Amino acid sequence: MAKEKKDGIMETVKTVFWALLIAGIFRSVFFQPFWIPTGSMKDTLLIGDFLFVNKMAYGYSQYSCPFAMCPISGRILGSEPERGDVVVFRHPTLNTDYVKRLIGKPGDKIQVQDGVLSINGEEATQVPDGTFVETYRSQGRFGTFPLCSNGPVGQGGECIKEKYVETLPNGVSHSILNVGDGRLDSTNVFTVPEGHYFFMGDNRDNSTDSRVSQRANGVGFVSEEYLLGRVDRVIFSASGKRLLYFWTWRGDRFFKKIE
C-alpha cells in the first residue's frame, strides 16, 4: 500500500514537471501572455486588456525565456520590426516588460515639436478624430487615475482627451491621445543608434518612453536583444481589478485587432 502511494506521488510530480516544461517552452517559443497594467497606450490598449505576444515575429534572444535564461548570444531567427508595430520589450535596466509603439529604427532621427512627431525631417500627419471619453475613477490593479484635458474632474465624472489619427511616413495609421501641452511635447532630435529602437506610447502625455533616457527613469533607446515580440490582437479585456468580476468585462474588445 505504501509503495502504491509513493508511486502515485511520483506520477503526480512527473506530470506537473512535464506540464510546466511544456508551458515554459510554449511561452518561450510561441506566445507569451501579457496583461496591460497602465494607460500609456490608450486608446489602442486599455488597462485590463489581456493579450498574447507573438514571440515568433522578431526571433529570439536570451530574454525570450523566463528569467532571461535562454542560452542565446545576440538574436537568432530574427526579422526586422516594422515602424508602427506595437511591441513588448524588456526594459534595459528595470527588468520589467513594457509595451509601446515602435517609432524609430536604427539611424532614424526622431523629434517632437509642439506635439507633432517628425521622423527624418518628415512630419507624421495628425487628423482630429473626436475625443476619447472615460470615467474618472481608480483603474486596474494599481488603482491609477487617468489624466484629463477637461480637468479637474470629480470621481465618477467624464474624463476627456483629444483624439487624433496619426499617420507615420511608412503609411501606418493609428490613434493617439492628447491631454494638453506637456514637457515632452517638444524635444531635441534623437538619433537612433545601430541595433536599437525608439518607442513611444499612444497616450502621448501619459507615457514613460524613449523620449526620456534610462538615467532619468525613462526608456531611452532599446537594444534589439530586449525585443520580446509583437502585439497583434487583444484576446480578452476587463475594466475591474479582478478577472472574475464578469460585470466589468468589455465584450467589444474580445479578439480585437491592434492597429
From TrEMBL:
Claim: Protease is one of the keywords in the record: yes
Catalytic reaction annotation: Cleavage of hydrophobic, N-terminal signal or leader sequences from secreted and periplasmic proteins
Enzyme Commission number(s) of this protein: 3.4.21.89
Active site: S40, K100
GO biological process assignments: signal peptide processing
Domain Peptidase S26: 10-234
Domain of life: Bacteria
Protein name: Signal peptidase I
Record flagged with keyword Protease: yes
Keywords: Hydrolase, Protease
CDD domains found in the cross-reference section: S26_SPase_I
Main subcellular location of this protein, as a coarse class: membrane
Annotated compartments: Membrane
Family of the protein in this entry: Belongs to the peptidase S26 family.
GO molecular function: serine-type endopeptidase activity; signal peptidase activity
